[in-house]
Protein: Transporter
Amino acid sequence: MLLALMPVVLLIGFGHLLRRYAFLEESFWPAAERLCYFVLLPSLFLHGLAGARLDALPVFQLAATLVLSTLAVALLLVAVRPLLPMNGPAFTSVFQGGIRFNNYIAITLAAGLFGAQGVALAAICNAAIVPTVNVLCILAFARFGNARMSATGIGRLIATNPLILACAGGILLQATGIGLPAGLDPALRSLGAASLPLGLLCVGAALDFGAARSWAGAIASSSIAKFLAMPLAALLAALSFGLEGAPLVVVLLFQTMPTASSAYILARQLGGDAPLMAGITAAQTVLAALAIPLVLAGLMAFSSPS
Structure:
């Protein structure tokens, strides 16, 4: 667990140092964020979903569990919004921190626990939850972010979102059996792999520890949603759909992941509180080292025979 999280923590810290000591030009960071959002992250999702192997797996049960638990926590966060002492853009960061997940770590852990079956299960999870999360986050930005939009504007933003388009394209290629052309496959794989280090460096570069004290409430709110409400909602949904064994473990892994660097990229692009989002991302990555083993231990105790 610690080995899977350590590179994430180190890259965030390294990004902070690079910007603090002005190793790169200040203009590099906005360009890097734009590259991640429009090219690297879409490549990651398109490649991962187009190459998924879904035979003999509980696709519907997995997808339904993930979508329903994500919707439940999203609605919970919106319901408690009036009780949270923060402005709209700050709430979008709490919202993202509560429902978005780090699929890099999730895939690594799923593959380590269950091998090829874990990779296939992770692909289903990504296919179900990535579009769901991105649509919900865009709706949150439209309602609570700096740039308020009409219904037409929201629809256009969803329809042209590069992450959603990449997911749709990957699912279509996988469902039709077309897959990726031989020459395009390694190129997209390489671009997708680059999204992890560059995205985390951008998160670290955005950290402002001088504002950390004012972030405590927001970090606590998003982390309670992420590490308590989300696993509980996922477990209840999974049990109702009869999931057990490896699929149940992978579902809980995904729903206990800390929020991803893509949350910061989205906050920067769509008018959220990007520095707060960077702080939530960094804090949850550290907290996940404790939360994920606790969730798995609880699952093992729950599922073991009495």
Summary: The chain is about 80% helix and 0% strand. The two ends are 27 Å apart (CA to CA). The longest helix spans residues 103-144. The chain has one domain: 2-18+39-303.
